[in-house]
Amino acid sequence: MLSLTLTGLKLKNPLMLAAGIMGTTGGSLKRIADSGAGAVVTKSIGLEPKSGHSNPSMVDVDCGYLNAMGLPNPSYKNFQHEIDTAKEGGVPVIASIFGGCSLDFSQISIAIHADAFELNVSCPHAQGYGAEIGTDPILVEEITHAVKNTVDVPVWVKLTPNVTNIKSIGLAAQRGGADAVVAINTIRGMAIDIESGYPILGNKFGGLSGRAIKPVAVKSVYDLYEALDIPVIGVGGISDWKDAIEFIMAGAQAVEIGSAVGNNINIFNEISSGMEAFLSEKEWTLEDIYGMAHQV
Ligand code: DHB
């Protein structure tokens, strides 16, 4: 009832693990696949091994998390076996990758074998990477184009909300040949310890995820659905089945879940049962509710 084809990939449900959480090892990715996810996205992988920013790299704030991990990863040279292990979970495995320029992105994507790529041009706090690239439509188009020319699997582009107009960046990804856009990555934020007066994160500032960002993400999906011809994948603060339904009504073909997985590994099964019960009570299909909020 919840199955779909997303950019050519067959998914048993529209619920995927978002990049950044439980995504560095094949074992944890497989565990999420075994817990009912329709697909899993890896932690972002770059050219060289990176240990990340100094601690604290994550803070629990009201309605979400602030984090500045600093893109820690083992590099693409040490990652294929993790993807291969994750594949044992029997669902599509999407490699999230980052780099400083189009050459970095194509070098990584040519060497990695995954079911799709998600280009991270949206990490809010990495110098020379992420949102420093993803706020420039020319770079986004060039990087997307470079990866599309390198691989023959779907290419998704994950967008930053830290821009004036997310549609112009989505359009740039579409011009570059993206098969889908993913909206949104974290929103730049900061927390200060009032006893000492110091910023809490080792990196001073970071990205906000979780419940707090859901309305921003829903609006971004809504706007991108109107502006683009390619599918939009929604992410940002999804914690229960109602949130997932809301994103699909805003125009998401599928959704990714990140922060909420931290509290509940069984969330994929819970959300899919909730969605199925709701759809059957309403006598609606996934297709029926896709973009439903645009009818008014
Ligand atoms: C990191 C990367 C991101 O894309 C993000 O949204 C948050 C954190 C990181 O590894 O620091």
Written description of the protein model:
By secondary structure, the protein is α/β, with parallel strands linked by helices. The protein has one domain: Aldolase class I (TIM Barrel). It is 33% helix and 21% strand. The chain is built from ten helices and 16 strands. The strands form four sheets. It has an eight-stranded parallel beta barrel, surrounded by eight helices. Strands 5-6-14-11 form a four-stranded antiparallel β-sheet, with no helix packed on it. It has a two-stranded antiparallel ribbon with strand order 1-2. Strand 15, helix 8 and strand 16 form a beta-alpha-beta unit. Helix 3 runs parallel beside helix 5 and helix 7 packs parallel to helix 8. The chain is globular. The model has no long low-confidence stretch (mean pLDDT 97).
